[in-house]
């Protein structure tokens, strides 16, 4: 165990190269990348990596991206939303091609992780669902799906990363700008969270700064204690 943790910590601080194995552009602004690292130590579901870009003058830019891949997956999978004027997300969305080589560091993070030891409710907004997808994939592989309830929130189904996979895995999906079946467009209601949040030992919240505070408050309203809620925020002030 000690060795594993030491390996993990060492790996997280070391840069490696990775070959781009697959590029899938989804909807207008999402790209799914599958990366083959030269060196990688499997981590925990919920962790993230850092991707570093380097231009011809040696200038670098690096950003964090949650891992969607099950830790047992030999490839690293990320889902990137292209932000307006986004330096790194724009490059990853528009320019990256199969067989390009990027720099990568990770897996990183010990707080926003789930090992299946506790029953949890996890709420993600937009690309905030990405680490929850890793948790779902991990849960499916180990037969722990009854311990993880996922709630995914997005404006439309087309803008929700991994929409079909989330629905197939039984996640509750709340769309705010379009109806989904009989559900009228709206943010999730406390009543809709009551069942997934019942008797959980832990809550996970991931998304933009605004989404994270909203979702954490919602979990509080349905009885999840604030000291068991773990939050991962994306964004300029995250
Ligand atoms: C732990 C962690 C995990 C993350 N996982 C993911 C992920 O799975 N997928 C993903 O797409 N992103 C993720 N992010 C966000 C990502 O790290 C970058 O912030 C994002 O890609 C923007 O970088 P950029 O270089 O394109 O934008 P920049 O060039 O840095 O900024 C462009 C403009 O967008 C604003 N901005 C920057 N970041 C954000 C943001 N996240 N949301 C809204 N506005 C922003 C800036 O203020 C600026 O106005 C994660 C962040 C963290 C901290």
Could you explain how this protein is built, in words?
- The protein is of the alpha/beta class and 238 residues long.
- The protein has two domains: 2-108, Elongation Factor Tu (Ef-tu), domain 3 (Beta Barrel); 120-234, 3-Layer(aba) Sandwich (Rossmann fold), CATH 3.40.50.80.
- Helix content is 25%, strand content 33%.
- The chain contains six helices and eleven strands.
- The protein has helices at residues 2-13, 87-94, 130-142, 163-168, 190-197, 209-221, and strands spanning 15-26, 30-37, 48-54, 60-66, 76-81, 101-108, 120-125, 148-154, 172-175, 202-208, 229-234.
- The strands form two sheets. It has a six-stranded antiparallel sheet. Strands 9-8-7-10-11 form a five-stranded parallel sheet, with helices on both faces.
- A hairpin with a 5-residue loop joins strand 3 (48-54) and strand 4.
- The longest helix is centred in the middle third of the chain and has 13 residues, at 130-142.
- The model has no long low-confidence stretch (mean pLDDT 94).
- It binds flavin-adenine dinucleotide (FAD).
């Amino acid at each position: 165990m000690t060795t594993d943790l030491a390996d993990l910590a060492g790996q997280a601080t070391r840069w490696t190269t990775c070959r781009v194995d697959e590029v899938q552009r989804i909807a207008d602004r999402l790209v799914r990348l599958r990366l083959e690292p030269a060196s990688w130590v499997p981590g925990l579901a919920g962790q993230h990596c850092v991707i570093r870009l380097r231009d011809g003058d040696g200038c670098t830019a690096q950003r964090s991206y949650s891992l969607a891949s099950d830790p047992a997956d030999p490839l690293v999978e990320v889902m990137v939303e292209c932000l307006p004027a986004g330096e790194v997300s724009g490059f990853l969305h528009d320019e990256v091609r199969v067989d390009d080589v990027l720099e990568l560091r990770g897996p990183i993070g010990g707080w926003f992780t789930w090992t299946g030891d506790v029953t949890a409710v996890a709420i993600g907004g937009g690309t905030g669902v990405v680490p929850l997808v890793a948790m779902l994939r991990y849960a499916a592989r180990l037969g722990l799906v009854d311990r993880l309830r996922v709630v995914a929130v997005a404006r439309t189904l087309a803008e929700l990363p991994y929409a079909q996979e989330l629905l197939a895995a039984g996640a509750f999906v709340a769309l705010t700008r379009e109806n989904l079946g009989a559900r009228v467009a709206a943010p999730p209601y406390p009543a809709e969270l009551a069942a997934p949040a019942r008797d959980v030992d832990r809550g996970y919240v991931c998304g933009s700064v605004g989404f994270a505070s909203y979702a954490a408050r919602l979990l509080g309203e349905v009885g999840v204690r604030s000291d068991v809620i773990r939050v991962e925020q994306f964004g300029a002030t995250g």
